[in-house]
Amino acid sequence: MPKYLVQAAISLEGLHGTLEEGGTARQAAVKTAVESMGGKLDAYYYAFGDTDVVAIVDMPGNAEAAGLSMAIASTGAVSISTTPLLTPADIDEAAKLHPNYRAPGHVAG
Fold first, then answer.
1. How are beta strands 53-58 and 40-46 bridged, if at all?
2. What is the model's pTM?
3. Helices (H), ranges, 1-109
4. Closest among 66, 64, 71 to 82, alpha carbons compared
5. In the sheet that 78-85 helps form, which strands lie side by side, from edge to edge?
6. Bridge partners of 88?
7. Domains and CATH numbers, the chain
8. CA-CA distance, 32 to 26, in Å (whole number)?
């Protein structure tokens, strides 16, 4: 299954909920949401700075990852960013591909 890096910034409302419920309860809620989309929660951490939560999830595909992100963001309790993660083998495969691309301002040759 593809892996995704999920980063979240908790809103004031979300912070109040986290303080009330606790960090492990929020982790359990995220795990339930991920699993309901056919995925698996690999890692879940709290952090300092612009990002309050960092998670790595396995999801069946982009549609499920996007659906999860939209459902979480729609609550208004967090601002979320989801990034697809590529393995070194994925990069090896990508390097073998040669699209027909011309950079702006360059003459085709």
1. antiparallel
2. 0.87
3. 12-21, 23-36, 62-73, 88-95
4. 66
5. 40-46, 53-58, 3-10, 78-85
6. none
7. 3-95 (3.30.70.1060)
8. 10
Is-contact 39 109, C-beta < 8 A?
Answer: no
Q: What is the pLDDT of residues 41-99, one digit of tens each?
A: 999 999 999 999 999 999 999 999 999 999 999 999 999 999 999 999 999 999 999 99
DSSP annotation of 107 reads P
Torsional sign, CA 37, 40, 41, 43 = negative
The amino acid present at 17, given as its one-letter code, is G
Place of tokens 């979480």: 72
Alpha carbons within 13 A on the beta-carbon side of 94: 6
Tens digits of residue pLDDT in 40-56: 999 999 999 999 999 99
